[in-house]
Write a structure and sequence with these properties.
The complex is a heterodimer.
Chain A: H1 2-12, H2 16-21, H3 24-43, H4 53-60, H5 70-89, H6 93-96, H7 102-138, H8 149-181, H9 184-208, H10 213-222, H11 224-237, E1 243-244, E2 250-251, H12 255-279
Antiparallel strand pairs in A: 1-2
Chain B: E1 9-18, E2 25-35, E3 40-44, H1 51-58, E4 66-71, E5 74-75, E6 86-89, H2 101-112, H3 118-127, H4 143-155, E7 161-165, H5 173-188, E8 193-197, H6 201-207, E9 210-215, E10 218-224, H7 225-231, E11 234-240, H8 242-250, E12 255-258, E13 261-264, H9 271-280, E14 284-291, H10 295-303, H11 305-309
Parallel strand pairs in B: 3-8, 3-9, 6-7, 7-8
Antiparallel strand pairs in B: 1-2, 1-4, 4-5, 9-10, 11-13, 11-14, 12-13
Helix pairs in contact in B: 3-4
Classes of the chains: A mainly alpha, B alpha/beta.
């Protein structure tokens, strides 16, 4: 398995999509911080109100919230589409399939995608911490009281956990689309549609419910959209995400239900991707 | 454990139907053949005959709808790991275009599970004439260069059997000669088994010990090349009037005009019968000699029987 992972690393780290869609984040954050520090140094001093400890830490953990945002899911989905459907476009499954089981080939790909994003997000979080501190120093502000290693770890850990479910769901759904369509563009389009429709349904569900109350209510509970948002809410706020419906009812589920539903969707899509790939004819 | 006496490759009633059963297209029908260890075996057929589908089933890329693929006595479906003993080249060498030739070989080596042996890679790149271009990205390679890189990838892990789908496609004359020598060397010097498909029948005739000819998804002939050419030898008949001679012989054998003569699909043993028929029909016989066919003529005669019968 480590050999398969090494092979994936050899190919994917050299693809430009890895630069544009994975290493983009640390580079972008670094540039943004350098600009902010240059501006602070040029103008001297900073805003009159220095941030509190919670805001200071929250600012450094922004990157972990990316998978929970629609744009973040689109970018992650784009990379998953390139990494998996790319093999069909390059016609290279024929090169590697005779050498190793399909399950381990796909597993290695999934593992490398996860590891690459984890590395990029960790690096970005590190850059955020370092440069937030440097920016404060340039502005002549001390690190707020309450910013401790354990507080940082706790906040970053929670933010990372909140982003994990949408990240894995995106990986599974776009991965399945990539295998079924064998096309990077088609997988990306499906990923975009799923991400947008799912987010929209969380917002618009209550407004649609008067037209088909039981259907909307059922879909709201069965589809993964609300549960992904709810899990993030539990992790970051310690409370459920509350969605009031026009009939006065409120959807506010416990985290175990949402974990079960979101987990079931992710596992089902992931299993379908592996099953489809194992049975697929590579013509 | 694989049986050391087993054929290197055995296809048993191998079939592939695309689409729903009953309404589907049968791309490969009950193909059976056996390739002995150390043999160079040619797999011939016109476009769309089912060659590539058969090769892809042999490599686990396409799932058969019937029959078995056995490699060294092991059923591929039950023991897919036996593919570790196979080297392959399909589709003219499909590689990661954004990686160099060398890096592509490293990917194949890692995927296979063998540590990247730099000397082995260098040696193979040198052997296929790509040492100077090893660091260039594959997207800049010509078709022939990709083909040669494909051969290097197929040999990378020192396989026991090498399966090559159209290995000389895109190669120039010198490249074809080098490939011919390489393939013969694999069998003669390294005791490798080679299973190759090609539409360049002259090349197949020069490098293969045995061939199977596939047409419309079915193996229509399997034989040693020498036997095939002997079986398919014809008779060259010089007679006049040619129309009468042709009519007299066409009732029994396939007949083709070749200048002022006829080439009759009869065996040497049938020569007296040919002469009797001609004289019986009132034709004058000036010459009757065995005509040695080459593989291309045999191939056309076998795969286009309706043309010959016309």
């Amino acid at each position: 398995m480590l050999d398969a992972l090494a092979a994936e690393r050899l190919k994917l780290t050299r693809h430009k999509a890895t630069w544009f869609l994975v290493w983009l984040y640390p580079v972008l954050f670094l540039v943004a911080y350098l600009i902010a520090i240059a501006v602070a140094a040029a103008h001297g001093g900073g805003p009159s109100k220095p941030p509190g400890a919670a805001d200071w830490i929250s600012q450094t953990a922004i990157i972990w919230k990316l998978p929970d945002q629609t744009i973040g899911r689109l970018l992650i989905g784009a990379y998953v589409a390139v990494a998996i459907a790319g093999e069909y476009g390059w016609n290279t499954w024929k090169l590697v399939i005779p050498h190793r089981s399909r399950t381990s080939l796909l597993l290695a790909k999934v593992a490398l995608i996860v590891l690459l994003f984890l590395a990029a997000f960790l690096l970005t979080a590190g850059i955020s911490l370092l440069f937030t501190w440097i920016e404060g120093a340039v502005r002549g502000r001390a690190v707020p009281t309450g910013v401790t290693a354990s507080a940082i770890l706790d906040a970053h850990g929670r933010a990372a956990l909140a982003g994990l479910a949408p990240f894995l769901f995106t990986l599974a759904s776009v991965g399945l689309a990539a295998i079924l369509t064998r096309s990077t563009i088609a997988a990306l389009v499906i990923g975009v549609v799923v991400a947008i429709v799912e987010k929209l349904f969380v917002q618009l569900g209550p407004y649609l419910s008067p037209y088909a109350p039981s259907l909307v209510w059922g879909l709201y509970h069965a589809l993964p959209g609300y549960h992904l948002v709810n899990l993030a809410s539990w992790v970051t706020e310690g409370a459920p995400h509350r969605t009031p419906f026009p009939d006065g009812s409120i959807v506010a589920l416990d985290w175990t239900t949402s974990l079960a539903v979101a987990g079931a969707w992710t596992a089902a899509l992931g299993a379908a991707a592996f099953a489809a790939f194992r049975r697929q004819d590579i013509n | 454990m694989s049986d050391p006496q087993a054929p290197a490759l055995e296809l048993v009633n191998l079939s592939k139907t695309y689409g729903r059963r009953g309404k589907g297209v049968r791309a490969v029908r009950d193909v059976s053949l056996s390739v002995a260890p150390g043999e160079v075996y040619g797999f011939l057929g016109p476009n769309g005959a089912g060659k590539s589908t058969t090769i892809r089933m042999t490599l686990g890329l396409i799932a058969p709808t019937g029959g078995e693929v056995r490699l060294f006595g092991e059923d591929l479906r039950r023991h897919p790991a036996v593919l570790k003993r196979v080297g392959s080249l399909v589709d003219g060498g499909a590689f990661y275009p954004f990686l160099s030739g060398r890096r592509n070989l490293e990917v194949v080596a890692s995927t296979h599970g063998a540590p990247t042996d730099a000397d082995r890679i260098d040696s193979l790149l040198d052997q296929v004439g790509l040492a100077k271009d090893a660091k260039r990205k594959v997207k800049g390679y010509s078709t022939g260069m990709r083909q040669r890189l494909g051969v290097a990838a197929a040999l990378l892990h020192d396989p026991d059997i090498v399966i090559l789908d159209e290995p000389v496609n895109g190669l120039d004359v010198a490249g074809i000669q080098e490939m011919r020598a390489l393939i013969r060397g694999l069998a003669a010097d390294h005791r490798k088994t080679v299973f190759l498909s090609s539409h360049l029948l002259h090349e197949v005739q020069q490098v293969c010990d045995r061939v199977a000819i596939i047409s419309k998804g079915e193996v229509v002939r399997e034989a040693r090349i020498a036997d095939l050419l002997r079986q398919e030898a014809g008779l060259r008949v010089e007679a006049a009037p040619l129309d009468i001679a042709e009519a007299a012989l066409a009732a029994r054998w396939s007949v083709e005009r070749s200048g002022d003569a006829l080439v009759v699909g009869a065996t040497r043993d049938e020569a007296p019968e040919v002469a009797r028929r001609l004289i019986g029909a009132g034709a004058q016989l000036f010459g009757l000699a065995a005509e040695q066919r080459n593989l291309e003529e045999v191939f056309l005669a076998i795969t286009q029987p309706e043309t010959d019968d016309a």
